[in-house]
TrEMBL record, chains A, B:
Statement: the UniProt record of this protein carries the keyword Transcription regulation: yes
Protein name as catalogued: Transcriptional regulator, HxlR family
Any one Pfam family match given in the protein's UniProt record, by short name: HxlR
Protein's UniProt keywords contain Metal-binding: no
Keyword entries, A-Z: DNA-binding, Transcription, Transcription regulation
PANTHER family per UniProt: TRANSCRIPTIONAL REGULATOR, TRANSCRIPTIONAL REGULATOR, MARR FAMILY
Length: 121, 121
DNA sequence: CATATAAGGGATAATATTATCCCCAGAAGA
DNA sequence: TCTTCTGGGGATAATATTATCCCTTATATG
């Protein structure tokens, strides 16, 4: 996320998508924003496993890549809203498929993860 | 990839998909295997930016999650072939979408990445 | 004999990514 | 006054992931 010393192949579509969706919470953020959860505090409540700090970092990157837009209302208390750009919206089918595939296969994947953690004692 | 100390939300479909496709070369490996590039050496030639070592690690994980199957021919020189399982095949539409979206948006994403690296001097 | 190919992996370094902690501002409500 | 809510981020620790290096086995080829 910060600087990359080992340049990644810029000629590969898969890598490009990875660059956008690779962050741990980015897919969740995009999906949440797409359904109208637009303010930072709401997003954090939606994804409480994470931290404001980290969410901010990932939001900033999504903004850098113009997947989302940020509207700042200069008020007190401050108010910020994110929304998807057209480019961001074009990711929705992909994200939905990711989510669906994951849901369908969740029991199976989960069981394997649990086996692994048990194998560690 | 090795051990995870911070447990990830097992109830989220997106996270499950991430667990499978999160490795740097896993999507490429799966796509390559799907088009018949089945032997480790072939795969490495297909993805020369990586290393045998790393590819092996990622292949092993894909196997653990039963996305691919490994056939070992006990010969000399050794011969190994990977192929997709049914579960692995079910990932193909997703991978193709990832690839297509990435290809479409590659020029744009690339330009932003390049701006960032230039901004570092 | 030197080199290549096949597949694999231990040990360790380098990098990248996330998490944690604690701070800031200003206003409203109990 | 003490707490809560808003949004934000510096500094640093902890973890996770990839990369690098080098060695093994056995056959075939120049």
């Amino acid at each position: 996320m910060y600087e990359k010393k080992i340049p990644l192949p810029l000629e590969c579509g898969l890598m490009m998508t990875r660059e956008i969706l690779g962050g741990k919470w980015k897919p969740n953020l995009l999906l949440a924003i797409s359904v109208g959860i637009s303010r930072p505090s709401q997003l954090h409540r939606e994804i409480p496993q994470s931290t404001k700090r980290v969410l901010n970092l990932q939001l900033k990157e999504l903004e850098e890549f113009e997947m989302i837009e940020k509207k700042v209302y200069h008020q007190l208390p401050p108010k910020v809203e994110y929304r998807l750009t057209e480019r961001g919206k074009s990711l929705m089918p992909l994200l939905q498929q990711m989510n669906e595939w994951g849901e369908k296969n969740r029991p199976f994947i989960k069981s394997i993860i649990l086996k692994r953690t048990k194998a560690l004692d």
